[in-house]
Amino acid sequence: MPAVLLFMKGPFSQFHPSHFTLGGHAYICAEQYMHEQKARLFGDVAMAERILKSDSPHEHKLMGGRVSGFDQEKWDANKVRIVTDGTRAKFSQNPGLRRRLLDTGDAILAEANPKDYIWGIGLSEDDPAALDPANWQGENLLGRILMAVRIDLTSTSSA
What we know:
- By secondary structure, the chain is mainly alpha-helical.
- It has one domain (4-157): Orthogonal Bundle (Tetracycline Repressor, domain 2), CATH 1.10.357.40.
- It has helices at residues 30-41, 45-53, 57-64, 72-92, 95-102, 141-157; strands at residues 4-7, 20-22, 25-27, 108-111.
- Strands 1-4 form a two-stranded parallel sheet. A two-stranded antiparallel ribbon has the order 2-3.
- α1 (30-41) runs antiparallel to α2, α2 (45-53) runs antiparallel to α3 (57-64) and α4 runs parallel beside α6 (141-157).
- The mean pLDDT is 97.
């Protein structure tokens, strides 16, 4: 089994500073992109604009939780695509970050957030159980997206 690379902060975090552009907008991090797109998905243009004007990932997250018209089923049907698009832009437009992701090789990437059972594994970095995917309590969607983007970037690097 490949090595497991646990992260909570750093370059693989959605909060990590990483300027990129997508769809005609400039973003300071992937967290901003995710919540701005969430607001647009639900037609909350005012909140989307507020998120774009903010330079704080923590504010982005809070504002994303206040999107009007939010529908969990619709979000579930779109969230992986949205985060994948933002993650791909983040790593393809920032050569240093791209290198960091590609340097993980075939490691299993896992967001070690003990409070996140959707994007993370539901365990902390210092929990020995976190090193075995069989013990994970969360879906690790962010880790899975990062690994998919890594494959995409590897194939475009060698093309």
